[in-house]
Amino acid sequence: MQKKILLINYLLLAFFSQLNMAQNIIPLDTINWEIRAKSYVIENYKGKNAIYIQRGGIFLKNTQFLNGTIEFDIILKESPMFPGVFFRGVNNFRDAEQWYMRTHLSGKPDANQAAASINGVTPWQLYFGSKYSFPYTYNYGVWTHVKLVVNNKRAQVFLDYSEKPNLSWDLFLEPKEGGVMIRGGAEAMHIADIIVNKDVNELKDFVPIERDGIKGLVSEWEVSEMFEESTLNDLGKVKTLISEIGWQGKIKVEEGIAANISRVQLLQKGKPKNTVFTRILINSDKDQLKQFEFGYSDRVVVILNGVPLYKGTNKWRSRDYRYLGTVGLFDNVYLNLKKGTNELLMAVSEDFGGWLITGKFKDNKGLIIK
């Protein structure tokens, strides 16, 4: 008899839980959502009221989100697409926290990604590895449930009603109210049962993964005004460009890996001016040759005391079809330093994925860097 009572109580609890969830689902209509997409259809699909959206996203109207829970169901496909959620979006979502899936990488370590949009650039080439991604085997053609819990500077994601978080991470931007946007992918897909609950923000077993930074990095770089990359093609004008350029502030290394140029510059996609100088001044106690290890994204020209020394590319797929372009100390240059102050410039150009610079001296004896 007692087992029957427990079973009845469990069923009642499940029923009212589902009823409460149904009551909190935000209707898929243009009253509640701004739909920006190539095309869309609102229809019943596999038992749910859903939106079928092609190349776009849906933006929750009249809601500012700081902390809480965001849930939705989505039908995934095996082809390359990047569905996910933006939250705390400001400046037309140029700045926002986000989490998204790489549906074609099921089971791979980078099957998904926690990152931020910073001045319109998502620097996944900086925020890589198990700290911000986890392997997951996706189920295609059926409803996948996504639950995101946000609390101040922390977040967790739970997939397919998991009791334990699949990923816990520290957020990238200072906590600030902003919008919520759920996006589809490169292809059309169905999204349903969206819930945004600002009253539920309790985290569970929050244990973020840590990663070791690179020791001895130059800790900060000065950043110039933006200019067009093609300007560097005329080597005879490089010194004039350097003498006339303005400087706009300094950026610090993040994650112990690299400095993010997007913190101070706005990349205008598809428009000219995708390049900046990043600069350090090196005071050398004598004339000497020093090895400098560095990394960048996407392209770089290295200039010492006005003289170009090196040009390289580290962009996505620049070396093979799976090359990610993640930043690290993969390149070296030998600097012929003079006694006194030397100016080292890195002209860094960006397409997407992270506008980044980093570097260190193999041996900094006799050097003061500022």
Tell me what the structure shows.
The termini are far apart. The chain is built from 2 helices and 22 strands. It has 370 residues and is mainly β. 37% of the residues are buried. β4 and β5 form a beta hairpin. The strands form 2 sheets. Strands 1, 2, 3, 4, 5, 6, 7, 8, 9, 10 and 11 form an 11-stranded antiparallel sheet that branches.
Which helices and strands occur, and which strands form pairs?
Elements: H1 2-24, E1 33-45, E2 48-60, E3 68-75, E4 84-90, E5 95-101, E6 112-117, E7 143-151, E8 154-159, E9 167-170, E10 179-183, E11 189-197, E12 220-224, H2 238-244, E13 247-254, E14 258-260, E15 275-284, E16 288-297, E17 299-304, E18 307-313, E19 331-337, E20 340-349, E21 356-361, E22 367-369
Antiparallel strand pairs: 1-2, 2-10, 2-11, 3-7, 3-11, 4-5, 4-10, 5-6, 7-8, 8-9, 12-13, 12-15, 13-14, 14-21, 15-20, 15-22, 16-19, 16-21, 17-18, 17-20
